[in-house]
Specification:
268 residues, alpha/beta, 2 domains, 36% helix, globular
């Protein structure tokens, strides 16, 4: 079964929740105010890369170390709130797909090297956090994911110590071939270097790519259900959902489409 992480409408009970690092109140509101504490089974706290949608933003607000420290606090807060749930925190990474090369310091310190620097810092500083390890690459260059993994290996990273990794360079990618090759490169690298493949997550996966990679991944996340995903919705509501009733309708339709693509989604 491929697990789908998201932040659903308030009235819908859903076990796999995505929480934003920069604005966790919405995720916490869904869990607490909407009364889903007992129902949530897995949580991913993302790294908040959406701040880099602005070409003028070059670093996480307050600096990378402060951001990682705040994630550590949020993790333990969630652990106390959801005592039986699995909670993972995505180590802050630097995407290259919003604005290619915008987050490179130099040709020798690209978004790849910067992400690795954060990984090594986070696991040493906060070893008791369940980290989701991001695998970054260069824009539209799926083989760069192999370079990332090899470089992380050269730094002595213990891959067997962590059980959850995320392909992190495909959030805005629409080309199915690039998505497919990126995921398969990562899958094959683990198979060759570890002899097995840990849990693989994909950030912001486009729904039309699922049928090509569903056998390679453990989970993915998306908030794309807030836009019409079927011809029925497009004809009636050619815009993003505007109210709670529409949010519930759009979400239910998205789940239907996931099932049509062969993804086993838990009934809600």
């Amino acid at each position: 079964m491929v697990i789908f992480f998201t932040l659903p409408p308030c009235r819908i009970k859903y076990p796999y929740v995505l929480i934003n690092s920069h604005n966790p109140k919405h995720g916490l509101g869904y869990i607490v105010k909407c009364g889903h504490v007992k129902h949530v089974r897995k949580v991913i706290i993302d790294s908040g890369v959406e701040v880099f949608r602005s070409i003028y933003v070059k670093e996480y607000p307050g600096g990378r170390k402060r951001h990682i420290a705040s994630q550590n606090l949020l993790y333990w807060r969630m652990k106390n709130l959801l005592r039986k749930a699995e909670i993972y925190v995505t180590i802050p990474d630097y995407p290259d797909d919003y604005h290619p090369k915008n987050l490179w310091i130099s040709e020798n310190k690209t978004n790849i090297e910067r992400t690795i620097e954060n990984i090594l810092y986070a696991i040493e500083k906060y070893p008791n956090v369940k980290w989701l390890i991001p695998i970054q690459g260069h824009n539209r260059k799926p083989k760069s994911l192999i370079r990332f993994l090899n470089l992380l290996k050269e730094h002595g990273f213990d891959f067997e110590k962590y059980d959850y990794y995320a392909v992190a360079n495909l959030c805005v990618e629409r080309n199915v071939e690039i998505i497919k090759f990126g995921v398969q490169y990562v899958y094959s690298w683990f198979k060759e270097n570890l002899g097995y493949v840990p849990k693989l997550h994909v950030f912001g996966l486009k729904i039309n790519a699922l049928k090509y990679i569903k056998h390679f991944i453990f989970s993915f996340d998306s908030m794309a259900w807030t836009r019409p995903v079927s011809s029925m919705l497009h004809s009636k509501y050619p815009f993003s959902c505007k109210n709670e009733k529409q949010r519930e309708l759009f979400f239910a339709e998205y789940i239907k489409v996931l099932k049509k693509y062969g993804v086993e989604v838990e009934n809600i």
